[in-house]
Design brief:
About 40% of the residues lie in helices and about 20% in strands. It has an eight-stranded parallel sheet. The chain contains nine helices and eight strands. The protein is α/β, with parallel strands linked by helices and about 220 residues long. It binds pyridoxal-5'-phosphate. The site of pyridoxal-5'-phosphate has 13 residues, from strand 8 and helix 9.
């Protein structure tokens, strides 16, 4: 079973993450057999980018998997994941938060939320620029959410071999996170920084990440 997974690499990542940092195994476009093999090695946090794919995996895989949605989320699809998703890493607007609140309320659940920051050089990466992020944080003061818990920020560094740039971008995410650490709202528990992927997770951990999102390094190349 577990030869479907590079066990040695998985153990190495676990050692680097230690107990300060949660590993999210990013299973998008990976077969259920591989996910199950990793599950059998006690991994419970899994991340997905696409609503339909996540729903079908949720239906087919063990029910104690903790699902993290990490991709771009359209408002009209929130209802499909609201019954089971535990974390959403990619929230970038108040209307999206309002929709998550509504759908979660209907399910009588609470979803853990991260606000996605855009700090990378690439235009293609989604998320809030710093000024947009500040406006959103301001707008939260007027809100009365009871079915979302906002836990912190998520971000991606530029896709580059320039490790100094990657480090700078992670430092920026961390400093934006820190600048709000005294926020007090009943629906905010500001304790999580989701940053670091296969190619840069070690830098991310050094810079204070509490959640790394690792796909290809654990599962191998994605089938697409
Ligand atoms: C695909 C993806 C990952 C994992 O990427 P790898 O490079 O395979 O580790 C992490 N975060 C997000 C937002 C992704 O879309």
């Amino acid at each position: 079973m577990s030869d479907l997974i590079d066990r040695h690499t998985f153990e190495k990542i676990n050692k680097r993450a230690s107990d300060k940092c949660t590993i999210i195994a990013v299973s998008k476009k990976q077969a259920n057999e591989k996910i199950k093999a990793l599950y059998d090695l006690s991994q419970r946090h899994f991340g997905e980018n696409y609503v339909q794919e996540m729903c079908s995996k949720h239906a087919q895989l063990p029910s104690d998997i903790i699902w993290h949605f990490i991709g771009t989320l359209q408002r009209n699809k929130v209802k499909y994941i609201a019954p089971f998703v535990t974390w959403i890493h990619s929230v970038d607007s108040i209307p999206l938060l309002d929709e998550i609140e509504l759908r979660t309320q209907q399910q009588q659940r609470i979803i853990q939320i991260l606000l996605q920051l855009h700090v990378a050089k690439e235009e293609t990466k989604s998320g809030l620029r710093i000024d947009e992020f500040q406006l959103l944080m301001q707008a939260l003061q007027q809100k009365k959410y009871t079915h979302v818990c906002i836990r912190g920020v998520m971000g991606m560094a530029s896709f580059t071999k320039d490790t100094d740039l990657i480090r700078q971008e992670f430092k920026l995410i961390k400093s934006i996170f820190e600048s709000y650490k005294s926020i007090t709202l009943p629906f905010v528990q500001w304790d999580t920084i989701s940053m670091g992927m296969s190619n840069d997770y070690e830098i991310a951990i050094e810079e204070g990440s509490t959640m790394i999102r690792i796909g290809s390094l654990i599962f191998g190349k994605r089938t697409s």
